[in-house]
Design goal:
- The protein is an alpha+beta fold and about 350 residues long.
- It has 14 helices and twelve strands.
- β5 and β6 form a beta hairpin.
Length: about 350
Amino acid sequence: MTKADFYSIIEAVIANLYETAKNDPESITSCKTGDDFELCVKKALEQVILSTGTKADILYAAGSHVFPDIIILSHTGEKYGIEVKSSTTKKGKDWKINGNSVMGSTRDDEVIETYIVFGKTSMLEFKAKNYEECVANVVVTHSPRYLIDMDLAADETFFEKSGITYKDITTSDNPISLITKYFQEQGHKAWWLSESTPAAVRMFSDVSIKEQNECFGHGLAHFPELFERNATKYKRLALWMATERSIVASSLRDDFSAGGQVNMIVNGMVYNKLPQIYYRLLQYKDYLVAALDAADPDELCKDWGVKVSNIDSLDKKIDAWIRVVTPHVCTNQLNKDIIPGKLIRDIITHQE
């Protein structure tokens, strides 16, 4: 069996389903579950194979949850697959539904190509499309899954946008890492990709003071933009807290900036009218240092957005951090006689 033969079979299956819907609509509308519609598709496939004289067997086990649901095994050994999807909704124009798991633990790797046959059973409408050509994104239910959109344009598939092929994922020992890398390159993070994220989502105000301080320390250590003066500077910290700690923070700006300007005496130096971020730096410096000490050098460089070599000790990390953070300081907020790098170092080395 060739791919062209398989495409012809799929077209005939869709035509058969429409013919059945016309002559015996109740046999379709009575489908209340995915398994029910799978049997309709299997019956249509059996009729097509019989009428066309195709030499092939149909491999199907109801409720087995294998991928794809139905396999056509030709007498020359080729395998082609049909993944069956259905919806009982009586309204709605889109053709979107969650697909199979990214991990593909039940996938038959011998299948050459898979088509989705999607039926809107209440509306007696059917579509078929190559599986790879209708994967819009990766979403999560209880595990990472593909989001299927039967109306997707060819250049809008997840595979086209990510540069990752379906074969890359199905043959990878760690497909999640491929997807993780893509999302990270786009500036996104996905909580389901973190191996140690707490299951329960918590409000920042409800976690312990120690954990709050750890979050602030991590933010100061990893996200130098916190020293800038712009409305989006808390974005990466908020994302990290949500994805890595399952903490939702609705007012990070207030936590870092509330209280107006402050006067500080640091290591014998008097600093007047400083923005609150410098008081927070003094307040959380021990947690900042702990975060730097625990951080992998490559992770720091990635979060800083610069390549820094030879930061294999805490002292070197601190020195590098000061060099990285200093250009982010908004000097317009400081008195003209203040040297930003010295101010930051004074705070970090301050002894009570």
